[in-house]
Structure formats: C-alpha cells, structure tokens
Amino acid sequence: MNFWLRLIIYLVAAPLAGGLLAGWDRRVSARMQSRRGPPILQPFYDVLKLWQKQNLAVCPSQNYYVLFFLLLVVFTGALFFTGSDLLLVIFALTTASIFFVLGAYKASSPYSFVGAERELIQIMAYEPMVLLTAIGMYMATKTFYIDGIAGHGGLLVLALPGVFLGFVFMLEIKFRKSPFDLSSSHHAHQELVRGITTEFSGRTLAMIEVAHWYESVFLLGWVWLFFASSPVFGVVMALVVYGFVVLVDNVFARLKWQTALASAWLVTVVLGFGNIIVLSLQR
Amino acid sequence: MTLILALVLVPFLAGLILLGLRAEWLRRGVVVMMVAGVCAGCIALACQPAPVILGELPVSRHGVNLGMTAIEALMGLYILWVGVRSRHFLIVALMLAQGAVMVWFESLAGADAGGGCGLFVDKFAIVMALINGLVGGAICLYALGYMREYHTEAHREIPDRRPMFFALLFIFMGAMFGLVFTDDLPWLFFFWEITTLCSFLLIGYTQTAEARRNALRALVMNLAGGVTFALAIVWFYRDTHSLGLQTLIHSGHAVALLPAALLCFAGVTKAAQCPFSSWLLGAMVAPTPVSALLHSSTMVKAGVYLILRLAPVITGTTVGNMVASVGGVTFLIGSLAAITAPEAKRVLAWSTVANLGLVVLCGGIGTSQAVWAGVMLIIFHAVAKCLLFLCVGVVEHKLHSRNIEDMSGLVLYMPRVAVMMLIGMAGMSLAPFGMLISKWAVLRAVVDACPLLSVFIVFGSAPTLFFWVKWMGKLVEVVRPQHRVVKEISLDESVALYSLSLVTFLACLFFPFLSSQFVEPYVAGVYGHSGSLGQGNILIMMIMMLVVMLFPLSFLNRGRGVTLVAPYLGGANIQGSPGFTGSGGAVETVTLHNYYMGSMLNEIWLSRAAVAGGSVLLAVMIVLAVL
User: Fold this and answer.
1) pLDDT (tens digit, 9 = 90+) per residue, A28-37?
2) Cα(first)–Cα(last) distance of chain B, in Å?
C-alpha cells in the first residue's frame, strides 16, 4: 500500500478506533462491577466537552509540553504504521513520554510531581521489555523494519512465547492499568488525586486523552505483529489481549512502586531474556 | 607535519610559560591566545584529507627517544617520592615494577629507534584532536573565570596555585594531542604517563586530606594500567621487533592478542571502567574545570580511544567479549548508581562511567557498526558532558551547593545556565539527539554480534532516562517565586558555555555530516566497509529532531489564552506562598523531593558489585589471552 495512503488512514482511523476501545473498556469495566456503564461513544463526548472548557493552568508553559507529547505520540504511531524501524519507534515513544513527564513537573503541584516521578519509574519498568521485544523480533525475522517483520512467514508468537507474555505484562504498565496505575489513577478520590494529569484541564486534558487513543492503537498494533502472518487472527488476538488487560485492571489492587518495578524487571529477565537466550542458542 | 608537531608542542610550551606567570592579565592573554591558536590548528587539521601524509621528523628519532626516556625517568622518580612521602607502598611497588619492565625493554631494544616518523594521523585521530582542542580549549577559557571566583569568593581557604593549575591544563592538552597522533608504542606510553601524572596533580590541587587521598587512588589505579601497558610493549617487541601501533593492529591474532589484551587493561583503568571506576568518582573533589577536562576531552577519552583503536584485533575473540562485558557491566551499574546520587557532579560522574562503558562495549565487540557507534558516542559525550559540568560549576558558585534538590526552579532565576543545562541533558538522553542515535547504533551492533550482551544495554538505558529526566524536571519546576540572579556568568565562562552549547546543538543537527566526513571514512579504512544507520532512518531522525527543536518556539506564545490558577494542594491554598491550610487548621508548606530509590539501590553495594564483577572479568580476560 502507498505510504501516504497508510499515513492518512492511520491518522484518521487510529483515534476513532482508540476512542471506541476506550468506550468499550469503560462499558466492560462497568459490567464487571455490576454497573450499567456509559455509552460506547462516551470518550468522544468527553473530549468534545473538554475542548470547550476554559483553559486553566498553573504554569503558563505547561500545556506546550502536552502538545508536543501528542505530536510525538502521533509521530510514533505514524512511524509504526508506515513500516519504519522498530527501535526508532521505541525511541520516539520514549521521547513522547518524556515530554508528558516534563509537563507534569512544570505544573509543580505535589500531586503532579509525584505522578511524574512515578511515571518515570513506570517507564523504567517497561522499557527493557519493550527493547527486548524489538530485539526478539529482530532475531526471529532478521529485520527491525516493521514491514519486514509483518511479512515474515511464520507466526512470530511461536518463536517468541516468552517475549509475548512479557510484552503483555508490560502493556499493563504502559496502559497505566491496575495493578500498575501508579502514576495516574482513573479516579480523583485516591491518594494520588489524578497523579500526572492533576493540573491539566480543558483542551490539554483532551489532548492527553487523544494521545492515549493513538497510543492504544499503536500498542495493539504491536500485539498484532506477533500474529501478523494471519492478519484476522492477529486482530482477534489484539482485542483478546486488550480484554485481558481490562480484566486484570478490574481484578487487582494497586501495587507499590517497588513491587511494580521489581516484578516488571523480573518478568523481563525471566520471560524476555530467557526467550532471547533460547533464540541465540538456536542460531 | 609542522601542524601536527605544533599541536603537540605548543600546549607544552604554553604550559611552561604559564608556570612562570603570576600576573592575572598576562595569564589571561596567554590562555586566550593559546586556545585560539589550538582551535584554529585543529580546524585546519580537520580540513586536510586523511590519512595525512607525514614527512620525516626534523630531529632524529633516537634523540627524541632519549629525551622522552629522561623525562619519563624524572616522572618516575617524582612518583616514587610521592609514594614514599605518603607512605603508600603500592604506588612505590607499581612504579618500581613499571621501571623494571621499561629497563627490560631498553635492554631488549637498545638503540633500535623504529622506522618511519612515529606519527600517524587518520580521521579518528582528527576527531579526537578536534574534541581535545575545541572542548579542552573551552574548558581552559572557562577556567579563567571560574578559578578567579574560586579563589576570591568561593574557597578563600585554599592556597592560590593558579600558575601551576593552568600549566597543567595545557600540558594535559598537549599530552592528549601527542597520544592521539603517535603511532610508536613507547611514545604513546610516554604521553599516557604524562596524563596519569597530570591527573594526579590536578585532582590533588586543593591539597585537602580528601583531595590527597583521592589523587593517590587515581595514581595507583592508573599506574596499574601503566604496568600492563609497559608489559604489552615488551611482549610485542619481543615477538615482532616492531613498536608501531598500526603494525600491532594489522599483525593478526596470534601475535597481537596478548599485547592487545594488556593494552585494553590499561585502557580500562584509564577509562575508569568497572573495578577502577572509583578514581573518577573521587576526582570530583577537584575544581570543576578539572572534572570537565578529565571527563570529556582528555584522560578517560584516552582509555576508550586506545580500546577502539584495538577493536579490529580483539573483535570476535574471547578477549573482545570480556572487554565488552566489562563495558556492559559498567554501563548497567553506572546507570543504576547515578539514580541514587543527589549531588549533581556525582550524577555526572556516574553517567560518564556508564557512557564510557558503552564505548568500551563497542570496542570489545569491534565490528564496523560497533566502532562507528563508539566514535559517535565519544563525540557526543564529550561536548554534552563538558557543557553539563561547566554549567554545574557556575550553579555551584551561585547557589553554594551542588545538590540537585537545590536547583529547583533554576529555569527562573538562572535562565541562561538552566537552558544550557537542559540542552546538555537533552543531548545526553532525549531521542533524536546525539547520544540516543549512538545508543541505537550500539544496540543494533550488539544484537548482530552478540545478542546476550544486549541485556546490559536494555537494563542500563532505562535508568539513564530516569535520572536525567528527574533532574530536568527539577530544573523546570517552579514551586515558589524566585528572584533572578543578577550576573549569572562572567565573560570567559559565557564564551565557553555559549560555544559549547552551540557545538552540542550543531553536532546533533549535523551528525550525518560528522558521520560521513569523519567516522565513516575511518571505519571504512579499517574494515573495508562502513557501518552506519540507513539513509531512510537518518531522514526520519532529522524530521523528529526538527519537531523537537520547534518546542522552544512554542514559548513565544507563552501564557496566551491561559487563565492561571493555583495548584491543587489538597487543602486551602494560601495566597502568594507555596503553602496550604490542612484539615487540622495547621499551615503546611509544600516541598518536593525527587526519588533516589534508597530502598532498592545502594551506591556502596553497587560499587562493590562493580569491583567484584569487573575484577573477575578482567582476570578471565588476561588469563585467556595468556593461554
């Protein structure tokens, strides 16, 4: 498919799909908690409403960080869906997160400060696994290019079962879902208030939401990559993984950051690196 | 030829002149002139096609050898005296061992002076010379302003020995030029020993008990490297009757592996890798320009320079893998340790140790891609790290603290320095900029050559991000209103800082040019093919870099259309102060502190792990090389 066509489809379809996923998440979570839940389209209504709100900020410049966070997240996804280099995608994603964290630091309230610190810890927790996933895919397919990985013959998940499980574990952290919702909880009545997003409101908060949609689609796209040789099955599996993440979110209570970090690194070493060792022995 | 000789000799000469100058304005004049001259020389050299064809030396090599031996003997005697005076008998023992090895060498070699002119200049040497000249020059300029303030305001209790200080800076620079241009192993050793001695004198500059202790520690560790260096020379000469570094590189595993392993050991000591990293951390007691010099342009770079030079010899061997493992372990431990440190200079020091670990890792792997990444890392690390050190020095003088917690809100009261620090940190950690480009290349090289080593990189790079960003966050956050410091930086300091910021910026922006003009030709010259990133990827990097560089522009629109409110504090905010009334009616003030992960990580414990791991790996390396 043409590069520009792919880019445009991604730019338009990703937020729609991401918003629907978020709505579905809220609905399913509500059902799990014996509530009715909002309509599926609620996230879009929320963002539209946020967009019309007054622009409040603690620091005059804090919102620019979020704007660049959004831009870079979109950029990351664009790299991914146009088939670029996987490592480059990871670095772009990290830079995006850094902008978000710096914005929260800039806001200078204790809650956003703690949220920012914890978000950094979360990045530290998941980054090794993300890099190992890219390395594992490279070792299995001999290329870092996403097009090449997707075009690889067999089901990647068969060669990379440990990496896949580690990646799913990491998704839990990346989506900031319980038990790893350390940096930003969904509910403002908790000890964090809203953590990293505490001091963002109106349009800026809407941008964070939209960025989150793009990010979700990109991450599920990566899950799809494990099953790329049979595309439809891949989509199903991506949705299954998302459902699993939502389920875990509702079942577990929040962990302390120490436990979160230690468990994430343990999983990365055992499942991720263990898988890499097996692959390198097979060579 | 003349240019090369001038670059080596003029700094030495300048050093000798400065030793005799007590008047400040004279010293200033000499320093400024010399720095301008050296920078011009380096740039002129960079414009020449390389490898530069060199003629004969104007004097006989035999004479040069004799002179060097004499100076070396004097330095040896001085070090012996230091060892005896401080009752540090390990120094005496190491120095005597080194002397004995050199005497053995003289008895073997006798009057054999070696062929050719003994100098060698290729693109890698030019890159190192540029770093040494430009970054080192900036440090010397900065030191003018810094040392004045150091002695007149910040540290009056310390005796003013500035003539010696500046003399040593220039001698150091000259030795570094000598080190990168020479092809003759004994000459290389001579310059190597000069840097050891200079670093000892500079670290001990303040002559406090701590400074003396740390200087001695640096001396011991570097002397240990010196002993193995001397052994390598003897061994290589005994087998091949030649002394050229290039000959060594091209003479194949059978002969070259043991000398290369010994030289790598020396490189590891100088680059402050795992078991030896404590000397570099101890070197922090010296005034900031010294730290900057040791960390960015000279000293540690000499170590990694040697290891990268030897990369073609050790690639694919067990020795190479051990060197790479030392680098990997150092990278991981250095990055973790940097999280625990609240003191700015210590964070920088650990980060230097970690980044050099990455370069050593590249050298150990030694494929064309890895060497490309290693050289790029050296370049970016030198400029960004120097900038950061110099900024911290300025801040330290104004705040009387180098604790990162005290730098909260720096962006308001020292905006220029804070922005330059942010540039340096972005250069060190943020994605499209220099260090990340290199880290990316390292990762690719490692995965191709030895995937298991990638575990060090993936676990090491995550903490790197953590400690840089939390520091950046501390600079940008604003808890309470601050007054701007009236005069942030003196003239000399600002020239140095601005030019380094500019160089950092340009190096990031023009890295494809740097790569194609300097690094790729060198790598292609050694390996026959070059390792670089794909064209498409470089293009994407440039796009991303432009996006990120647009960020400062958004500040033009600062505060427009935004209603400012007080932060949420979980109580009733008190107007105009960062406090709130809590539920009990008590007034609480807000303070924000970074995480240092004291419950999980412990610097002492990490250092011990580093010493243990590094020693084992190095021992295995030497044993395997001997077998």
Assistant:
1) 999 998 999 8
2) 41
Report the share of chain B in percent with pLDDT over 90: 26
Determine the average pLDDT of the residues in A204-213: 93
Three-state SS string over B61-102 comes to: HHHHHHHHHHHHHHHHHHHHHHHHHCCCHHHHHHHHHHHHHH
Percent of chain B scored above 70 by pLDDT?
Answer: 95
Q: Is B213 touching A (CB cutoff 8 A)?
A: no
B139 touches B297 (CB < 8 A): yes
Range of the domain at A115: 56-282
For residue B284, what are the CA distances in angstroms to A38, B355, B520, B610?
A: 59, 17, 35, 19
Structure token digits, residue B415 = 């905006």
Q: Are B492 and B141 in contact (CB under 8 A)?
A: yes
Q: Cβ separation of A56 and B443 shorter than 8 Å?
A: no
Band of residue B488 on the pLDDT scale cut at 50, 70, 90:
low
- A48 pLDDT exceeds 90? yes
Find where tokens 């599920």 sit.
Answer: A220
Which residues lie below 8 Å from residue B498, measured CB to CB, with a gap of 6+? B420
First to last CA, chain A: 33
Residue A111 resides in a domain: yes
Cα B393 to chain centroid, rounded: 16
What distance in Å separates residue B307's CA from the closest CA in chain A? 26
Which residues lie below 8 Å from residue B606, measured CB to CB, with a gap of 6+? B333, B336, B337, B340
- Alpha helix locations (H) across A33-109? 42-51, 62-81, 86-107
Contact with chain A for residue B539, Cβ under 8 A = no
Is there a domain that residue A2 lies in? no
DSSP code for A277: H
Which single residue is written with the structure tokens 């900029």? B433
B274 has a pLDDT exceeding 90 = no
Examine residue A44 and state whether it is found in any structural domain, yes or no.
no
User: Rounded mean pLDDT of chain B?
Assistant: 85
Task: Report yes or no on A48 lying in a domain.
Answer: no
Task: Give the model confidence (pLDDT) of A73-130 as tens digits.
Answer: 999 999 999 988 898 899 899 989 999 999 988 887 888 888 888 899 999 999 999 9
Cis peptide before B51 (omega within 30 of 0): yes
The maximal CA–CA distance of chain B, rounded, in angstroms, is 88
How far is residue B45's CA from residue B54's CA, in Å, rounded to a whole number? Answer: 13
Among residues 333-352 of chain B, which lie with CB inside 8 Å of chain A? Answer: none
The token pair at A110 is: 């204790």
User: 């990496």: which residue's tokens?
Assistant: A163
Number of domains in chain A: 1
Checking A30-34 for CB contacts under 8 A at 24+ apart, the result is A32/A247, A32/A250, A33/A250
Residue A61 near residue A112 (C-beta atoms within 8 A): no
Residue carrying the six token digits 């902008």: A99
Mean pLDDT to the nearest integer, B464-490: 80
Task: Note whether B149 and B397 are within 8 A (CB).
Answer: yes
d(CA B92, CA B560): 68
Closest chain B residue to A98, measured at CA: B469
Cα–Cα dist A84/B537, whole Å: 8
CB contact under 8 A, B451 and A279: yes
Identify all chain A residues contacting B479, using CB atoms and an 8 Å cutoff.
108
Q: Cα–Cα distances in Å, from B389 out to B122, B342, B354, B594?
A: 29, 15, 16, 21
When pLDDT is cut at 50, 70 and 90, the band that residue B69 belongs to is confident
User: How do the domains of chain B map onto residue ranges?
Assistant: 315-551+596-619
The CA distance from B338 to B152, in Å, is 32
Residue pointed to by tokens 């995608």: A89
Residue A192 structure tokens: 């964090």
pLDDT of residue B111: 61
Closest listed residue to residue B359, CA positions, set B345, B348, B370, B350: B370
Nearest to B161 by CA among B27, B33, B291: B27
B208-240 per-residue burial string, b: 16 or more CB within 10 A, e: under 16? eeebbbbbbbbbbbbbbbbbbbbbbbbbbbeee
Reported residue count of chain B is 627
